[in-house]
Design goal:
Helices cover 46% and strands 14% of the residues. It has 79 residues and is of the alpha+beta class. Strands 2-1-3 form a 3-stranded antiparallel sheet. The chain is globular. The protein starts with 8 loop residues before the first helix and ends with a helix.
Length: 79
């Protein structure tokens, strides 16, 4: 799913943390970032969210179907 409407990176990461399976962010260049990794949070997320135009060029992949539903609900709420 494409990522859009992320107003609070902190809240977004809280949502990711609640997912049961792995969640990866795929950049426009094809880089895969494991969003459940603490290292990724500290090294990559701040840069990714510093320029909000980058968010529209990324795709989120969740391994668990329930997580996909959960993330879609979050994105639809826009919180």
């Amino acid at each position: 799913m494409k990522i859009y409407n992320v107003k609070s990176p902190e809240r977004f990461l809280e949502i990711i943390k609640q997912c049961k399976g792995s969640v990866e962010l795929i950049s426009k260049q094809g880089d895969r970032l494991n969003l459940k990794s603490e290292l990724t949070k500290y090294l990559a997320i701040s840069k990714l969210f510093a320029d909000t135009t980058l968010i529209n060029d990324m795709e989120l992949i969740a391994s668990d179907p329930d997580d996909v539903k959960f993330l879609l609900e979050y994105m639809m709420e826009g919180k």
